Amino acid sequence: MNHFVSVVRRRLIAGLATLVVLAATCALVSGGDLQAAGTLLRPEIATVTVNGVHVRARNGGESTVALCPRDTTIAARLRDRRTKLPKGRSDYAVYWQSARSPEWHDQRGTTGPAGRIHPVHLAQRLSAFEVSGDGFSHVFHVRYRRCAATVSDITTSTPYGVRGERRPYVRVTGTLHAQRSDGTTRVFGGGRVVVRDARSTKVLTTRQTSADGTFAAVVPVTASTRLAITPVAGPGVSTAHPVTYGRTWRLRTALSAHIAVPAWMRRHVRYTPSVSFSPRLDRYTGNFADPTVIRMGKRYYAAATTSSNLNLPVLTSTNLRAWRPREALPNYYDYTSWPHYNDALPSAPRWAARTHTRENVKRISQWAPSLARLGKHRYLAAFSAATRATAGQHRHSCIGLAVASGPAGPYWPLARPLLCDPTTFFGVIDPNIFVDPRTHHVYLTWAAEGIPHHRKGRLAMRRLNDRGTGWARGSRRHDLLTFTQRWESVIVENPSMIRYRGTLYLFYSANHFSTSRYATGYAICRTPAGPCTKPRRGPLLASRGRIAGPGGASAFTDARGRLRLAYAAWQRGHVGTGGRRLHIATLARSTRHHTLSVRRMSQ
């Protein structure tokens, strides 16, 4: 009996051992099949494009690419290893290493249905970059080659001008070409050329090429003028070949007195004959309400509410004392850069109500603009304007945005307004763009009109996206402050935010702008979203001496790092008439409590 039990036990153990071996074998076989199948299902690199040029890439490989010294754009497409079709919904990563730092940076994401990764735009020199993902990778070592830019197809028109001008102008056109990373040469859209007088080397104008590489400029000439046209050594250009173009024109005596515009051009010419805002003025002292000032190096740019038959008047200065109107820039058709044409917003947005049309230019009622720099060649303007829904004296305003490649414009508006508030009687006004130097985040503050006996008017804020074209994802509105002091009456408006020596200040105007009680106050904020507290019971700037009703202030720092305040004010005895002039105040800051005081009222 014992022997029988022992035999059965040995056979059961042997059977179980056999089953375990069979299960393990099946697992190994099936696991190998799955692994092989997984390898086939993994994606691979189909194509890699750098600055629009295809470069060779293979999984697990390394290679060297030669690039032009320009902003680098990396794009790629993934495909299925088995079917060779585009591989969508596949995880990827693009790593890059700057030439100045050994630290690696990355961008991760998931390919779209066409298997394309999101392009990576880098405004820096690279030493290497890598495209990788699940089971694939390729490393590219970067070296830079000399790439040249040239100008060709130069043409000039016969001399012409406008009535009242005492010198002739000619229209110069041409095409800009630049080498690509693969050595080929193509038209260079988005590049820049400088037109100089070859004899005096004086810069006559700077133009940006269109998408097809062409450019047009209008420059003054004499009977014998030699023009030197040089590509700007900017993105994608390490060597530039200037072109000298000389020509002699027969100028009639009448050209020195009155120059007539050709009939075919008169239909397109758009300019303002406002003598009061001519760039030939060395010191402008006219109306300039609700100013905003930004500094670029040692030059200051100021914009203001619509005046002098201009949608967006802009002044420039190098010392904050003598201000002159901006130099004229070409209109839509590039037919003119005459001194009388100097509107920084030549194309008014369609959503804004038209006040009148003069010389084919649509004029709007634009209020309290704000200028800011968001990139090397990207500037943003925010402004408020009445909408088409305006009826009679019932003004309802929205806030719009416009972009430009330079601080003086021209600014081109976005198709739709950024912000409207149909719940209020007058809408939203007085936008201010604030770029926080700590985080580089972009914020918009504005004045929200109140509803009598229901809701107080207040200042509000919301974060914009990095390009300034809309609201940041996940952002929301934050109310900052409202009127709480007697001198403010029932109006707070014209916010201006600045971070000075680590402290966040919010300047604002209060009371009625058409009276001498209009004044400027300030608050100290913990964050751009608040809370904000008012450190004093009275205004910071109030009527004093010959200055009446100082308001519409904009804060900025000068070239010496001092806190300045640009504002507009009436002249004493002429409140409500004659317009408000531009003034610059110098502020002082206490070391202990970080409070502000006025060191100098006007400069």
Structure characterization notes:
With 603 residues, this protein is mainly β. It has three domains: 43-144, Sandwich (Immunoglobulin-like); 148-266, Immunoglobulins (Immunoglobulin-like, Sandwich), CATH 2.60.40; 275-600, Tachylectin-2, Chain A (5 Propeller), CATH 2.115.10. It contains two helices and 40 strands. It has a five-stranded mixed sheet, with no helix packed on it. A hairpin with a 7-residue loop joins strand 27 (397-404) and strand 28. The longest helix is centred in the N-terminal third of the chain and has 40 residues, at 2-41. The model is unreliable at 27-40, 253-261, 264-273 and 329-340 (pLDDT under 50).
**Strand line-up in the sheet with most strands:** 3-9-8-5-6
**Integer count of domains:** 3
Briefly note the CATH topology name of the largest domain: Tachylectin-2, Chain A
Tally of DSSP β-strands: 40
Helix content: under 10%
CATH homologous superfamily title of the largest domain:
Glycosyl hydrolase domain, family 43
Mean pLDDT across all residues, rounded?
81
Tell me the span between the first and last alpha carbons: 120 Å
CATH architecture of the largest domain: 5 Propeller
Q: What is the subunit arrangement here?
A: single chain
Structural class: mainly beta
Overall form: globular
CATH class of the largest domain: Mainly Beta
- In terms of DSSP E residues, the strand content is 35-45%
The gyration radius over C-alpha positions equals 32 Å
Low-confidence regions: 27-40, 253-261, 264-273, 329-340
Summed up, the helix count is: 2
Biggest beta sheet attributes = 5 strands, mixed
